[in-house]
Amino acid sequence: MVSINKLFFQLMRFGIVGVTAASVHFSLVIFFVELYALKPLQANVIAFLIAFQVSYWGHRYWTFRGTTNSHRVALPRLFVICGSSFIANEGLYYLVLTYLKLPYPLALLVVFAILPLVNFTFEKFWVFQN
C-alpha cells in the first residue's frame, strides 16, 4: 500500500520533472522554428527526442527513485509511454494549428496540458514499478 504522503511527494516530483522537460521541449521548438526556420511540427519531433532524455533521467533518479527496473527495461517502456503520448499530442497539435489557427507557441501549451496523469499512472506502475 502506497502512503498518501509518499504519493503526494511523488506527484510533486513528477510535476517538476514534467514541467522541466516540457520547458526544454517548448524552448527547443521556439529555437528550431525561429533560428532554423523549421516547421513547428518538425521542430516538435526533434524537441521531443531531446526533452525525452530530461524526462527519463529525472523520473528515473528523482520521481521514482528506488525503482528496481533496469535501464534495459525502463527506458524502452518509458519511450513507449512518451512516444504514444507524443503521437497523440502531435495529432492534437496539428488540429489546433490547422483548425483553431492559434499561434504555434500557444497551440503547443494547449497540447502540453493533455495526458500527464495518465502518463504518471503508467510510469509509476509499469515503467518504473515503484
Label this structure with key terms:
130 residues; mainly alpha; 5 helices; elongated
Element string (H = helix, E = strand):
HHHHH
Helix content: over 70%
Number of helices: 5
- Count the E strands: 0
* Strand percent estimate: under 5%
Instruction: Output the structural class.
Output: mainly alpha
Contiguous low-pLDDT stretches (5 residues minimum) are none
**Which radius of gyration do the C-alpha atoms yield?**
15 Å
Describe this structure in words.
The chain is an all-alpha fold and 130 residues long. The chain has one domain. The protein contains five helices and no strands. It has helices at residues 4-36, 40-63, 71-100, 104-112, 116-127. α3 packs antiparallel against α5. The chain starts with a helix and ends with a helix. The mean pLDDT is 92.
Short overview:
The chain is an all-alpha fold and 130 residues long.
List the helices and strands and how they pair.
Blueprint: H1 4-36, H2 40-63, H3 71-100, H4 104-112, H5 116-127
